[in-house]
Automatic annotation (TrEMBL):
Pathway: Lipid metabolism; Phospholipid metabolism; CDP-diacylglycerol biosynthesis; CDP-diacylglycerol from sn-glycerol 3-phosphate: step 1/3. SUPFAM superfamilies: Glycerol-3-phosphate (1)-acyltransferase. Its main location: membrane. It comes from Marinobacter nitratireducens. It is an enzyme of class 2 (transferase). The gene is plsB. GO terms for biological process: CDP-diacylglycerol biosynthetic process; fatty acid metabolic process. It is found in: Cell membrane. Its EC number is 2.3.1.15. A motif (HXXXXD motif) lies at residues 311-316. It catalyses: sn-glycerol 3-phosphate + an acyl-CoA = a 1-acyl-sn-glycero-3-phosphate + CoA. Pfam families: Acyltransferase, GPAT_C. GO terms for molecular function: glycerol-3-phosphate O-acyltransferase activity. This is Glycerol-3-phosphate acyltransferase. Keywords: Acyltransferase, Cell membrane, Lipid biosynthesis, Lipid metabolism, Membrane, Phospholipid biosynthesis, Phospholipid metabolism, Transferase.
Amino acid sequence: MRIYQGIRSLILTLFRKILFLWVRTDVSGNSLESLGLDPNKPVCYVLQYQSLSTRLVLEQEVIRAGLPGATEALPVKNAPSHSFFFLYQRLGGLFQRRQTPVPTKEFRALVRYGLENPEEDVQIVPVSLFWGRSPDKEKSLVKLLLSDTWSVAGRLQKLLIIMVHGRNTYVQFNQALSLTQVVEEYRNSEERAQRKLARILRTHFRRVRQAVLGPDLSHRRTLVGGLVRTQAVKEAIRETAAKDDIPPEKVRAKAWKYADEIAASMSIVTIRFLEVVLGWLWNKIYNGIAINNIREVKEVAQDNAVVYVPCHRSHIDYLLLSYVLYKNGLMPPHIAAGINLNMPIVGPILRRGGAFFMRRSFKDNPLYATVFNEYMHVMFSRGYSVEYFVEGGRSRTGRMLQPRPGMLAMTVRSFLRDHRKPIVFVPVYIGYEKVMEGRSYLGELRGKKKQKESVFGLAKTVRKLSNSFGRVAVNFGDAIPLSEVLDEVHESWRKEAYDAEYRPAWLNRAVDELALRVASNINASVAVNPIGITATVLLGTDRLAMDEGQLIRLMDQFAGLLKAYPYAETVTLPEGNGRDWVAYCENMGLVARQPQKLGDIIALEGSNAILMTYYRNNIQHLFALPSLVASLFENKDSLRRDKVVFLAGVAYPYLQSELFLKYEPEEAERVINQWIDVLIERGLLKALPDDRIGRPEEGTEAMLRLRVLSRFIIQTLERYHIALGILRKYGSGKLSAAELEEQSTLLAERMSILFGLNAPEFFDKSLFRNFIANLQKNGVITTDENGLICYGEGLDEVAEDARLVLSVEKRQAIQQVTMLGA
């Protein structure tokens, strides 16, 4: 028997080595940590369908990873140190019709072993293997024959698949199951125990396949034709034909043209091509890609239609997220891209990579809006993963922009029409240490006209590939099930009937709540990097320069604040310390060193001083509350603790809305108190008798730390004070919201020039607009029948409280410009 086993093992080893002369694999989850294995318990690896080739690949990857094996006692000991078994075996010969797969004898023997030996637990590790990862094209015989799809391949088909796709094989190990826990309740029924374990494994394999391959895809031409035949589009065609007096056939042709313009044409060949090209590109321009919290995404993708909602910092975002998902075993999403990217050469490649194109505005074209809505409904109802940017466009300041409701509203309305397939939003933070478009953003912020995308513009970008842009972080935030949001906004939403045109009265509230959660969860998964923390500290100094030793200490201490009271579990912090970060920024060419005998000076010079505000703004929200507390001591030696909490609480709703802070207003008091305790513990504040809080002595390093910390948020508070000052200058019932916004923007721009404020967002009109809207939302101001702003004593109280956080110099400057008395 041993001779037979030895010969068999030798033959299988030979086959494995021959197979891997051709096969190349991409593997995920093959580590003790990710599998959650107990090294003291035996392990069995299970594949879904019986196949010699998949078993050889599995054995090779287990050996490569050095994963633990089994004991001699197990009934499925089929290798010198490891155990493998298949869940199902096929019945039928090479030329016989295949029958329904049945459980293998090894599977049945393992269940029997678990029932007979309850004290001997076995860890069962499900392993999924894919020969290529092509979507299933319903109309493509070639893809059906030569791609690993939802169907079970025969021997001849498997041979062809290995020949065509063997060099693009994906293997995914998944967390282990406990055999004892699975069969525990069926000790007296081996058959029921087998059914339970088979059901668990079958469900697991189906979910993984759904996440990796995605749902079945229709042929694009069939999809486009189907859109035009939907009831909603037919009705839109009739209405457009009647309104514009155009023959229905011409309108129908226009609808078909719209659908063809919009629809993606995802191609596995293009995706693999882009994988190779992008892999080279990232290695060329970046020092690595850090990926965090991907496991949660893999879990939600198995049972839900996933909507990826990343922040939008660069055109690279489109490509980077798809690349990261594909490399981690997830189907790349269909991506909503602006029609401006549908350029010659580039557009067709993006379309085959999963992009679908949308026009900037639908308002004056109801036919186009209907076709686009129906396309989105097809995506969601069929379970495709989709990606779109809720900000609409790229952020030029590094801040999260106010979400636009359009795509979110389409998603909600589609889900209301058909909610059989759950939809889950996955926020994604993409953080660059050096954004590729940084210099062009500077020009746009200075008033330069935004350049239109073109092939020539792309060629200019390619010239930058010799530059180093540091590392990139892709952090996945906490998932947001759409049904949970709807339950909170309108509990009885499932009981109502919806059609393509129905807009319930509560829809806007649901979309607003969803937008807020998405933006907050993106910010709650931010990646802090050396560039951001260096920028934050240097921009908080008077002259944008500091002694190197002092700068290093401050950065270490402020990083310590983030560790002392973590903002969220999904936030990631940089490795190393302040000294490493300064050296890194200097190497990236973002800070300048001025040698001095008493100690080198690190400074921001020229355009870098403005550029670094972009990277500071990436992480500003993390320091918003401690900075707000620190700013209250700008003009006061001490304050009662309840006064500190009250003042910070008054400002919190406006900061929350602008920076998308995750805490609800009712949580603010608790969080502010917690930050006061942390600042006292760290020596930035001190506890005094009579429940008062005091600042450190002037001239001490602790006072310097407090003052620098306060400046992280002070310009935001100054902007608020400008708007309040102008409103009080004109008086109640004298200005409209638009006039106040315009006056505030002009004054902020003037102050930026007069006082050398280097933050472009200081005079961002949209930020003033948001602040004015929040004043109205909080009841501080109202509008009369003529649209003029009215206010009472409440606004004066808010303005007086705001004055407390400003330095004497800035307060006098604002008073002088607004011609207000002291």
